[in-house]
Amino acid sequence: MYVQAETPAGAVRGSRDPFGELYRAIPYAAAPIGPGRFLPPAPHPGWSGVRDGTRPGPTAPQPVRDFGELDMTPYFGPGWVRGEEYLTVDVRTPAADDGRRPVMVFVHGGGFVTGSTRAALYDGRAFARDGVVLVTVNYRLGVPGFLDLEGAPPNRGLLDVLAALRWVRDTVAMFGGDPGDVTVFGQSAGATLTGALLATPEAKGLFRRAIVQSGSGTGAFTPEQAARVTAAAASALGAEPTARAFGAITDERFLQILPALAGLDLRTETAVDPLAGLSPFSLVLPVQPADGPLDGDVALLIGTNTEEGNLYGEPDLGRRLFGDGTERLARAHAALSSGHTHRYSFGYRSTASNGRLGAAHTVELPFVFDVADEPWLHGDTGLLGPDPVPDGLAARVHGAWVAFASTGDPGWGKDIVEFFG
To answer: N or C: which end of the chain has fewer CB within 10 A?
Structure first.
């Protein structure tokens, strides 16, 4: 069944199912084309007639990532689906009415180079079922999103997320959401972006709560580290490291040079590589979010999985890459916001890869989105492995996220709650 919602940019057609209404690929900014890929997000010009929001849209240009026998397509999605207009959001809502429901805005992970709203894990049926409006966000990735270039604003992917939050402020009421009751949540790179929003003055007032899942408050590159990546990219492309020169280069060529950027030594006299070599892209900041002025008025739910590094075959990587940065961000926020910092540790061990995956990076996501029973997450290559998950664990985790977004209280105090099943 088709439904329709009105927005300031024009009308959008969506679809209705037993869980509510779904509107896909709604632009929150103009298409980033040519040199525009290295400019701040621009307002979308709007459209006439009714825009079709019943089908998924294009994704940001991105490479294929391979995790061997483990099927990570539910996490990464279909990869690069070509099309210029990919700065879009998907909206899942119980109904596009005047309901004024809590809103959750999800920022996907993928190492700042991959991911999209089309990933199966981010299905919002359970949130709509439980009275929440879910908005999932695409943003620029890789070279267009995060390479530091002369003549271009830094952190363009973060600027995209800010533009999407402004779209939520101005539009979500037309989808049954309350623009004054917004929770931003992200995982991995998306969590690092979410943490940075807490220290971004331009984000003030755009959301009331934040959830940081397996991210880092110390995951940003220093300007010196970013300059090394830029120099390597310019050398690989044979181009000057400027927005003007890069604006004439195709997205295909940007993807072709990614192997030349892998494994760069980003250690300096004053900083280690905050991503431990997993990605040549990150935010570029003079001060880490955990060390900067945070918005203490925003309530925070923050945590990690107990065996993050297992996804990469490096068990010790998780405490260095995610644990330390999460701890510092949590402590910094708690010092400013007494009683509004809530922490968790996720320890359920997936039986994937003959039990070697365990409570690895990404394993909490099926429980947050309450899709842990889906067949495509199980079997010999599924993220959760061949065994069924514990009864009630997904309801408990998902319920805590919904409670936090609805009331600011996930159901526990300042102590760290543990999810083990």
So the answer is: N
Rg of the chain in Å (alpha carbons): 20
Report the distance separating Cα 100 and Cα 175, nearest Å.
Answer: 9
Given the residues 116, 188, 214, 279, the one annotated as active site:
188
Contact 300, 208 (CB under 8 A): no
Is 308 a residue of the active site?
A: yes
In which band, very low, low, confident or very high, does the pLDDT at 226 lie, cut at 50, 70 and 90? very high
More confident residue, 325 or 318: 325
At 46 the pLDDT is 97
What pLDDT shows up at residue 317?
Answer: 83
For the question of residue 327 being annotated catalytic, the response is no
Catalytic choice (307, 308, 327, 364): 308
Across the range 306-332, mean pLDDT stands at 92
d(Cα 50, Cα 12) in Å, to the nearest integer? 5
What domains can you pick out in the chain, each with its CATH number?
2-419 (3.40.50.1820)
Contact 64, 25 (CB under 8 A): no
CA dist., res. 222 & res. 313, Å (int): 27
Residues sharing a CB contact under 8 Å with residue 315, sequence separation 6 or more, in sequence order: 307, 309
Contacts of 329 (CB under 8 A, 6+ apart): 195, 198, 212, 216, 217, 218, 289, 290, 302
Tell me if residue 361 is catalytic: yes
Give residue 139's pLDDT: 99
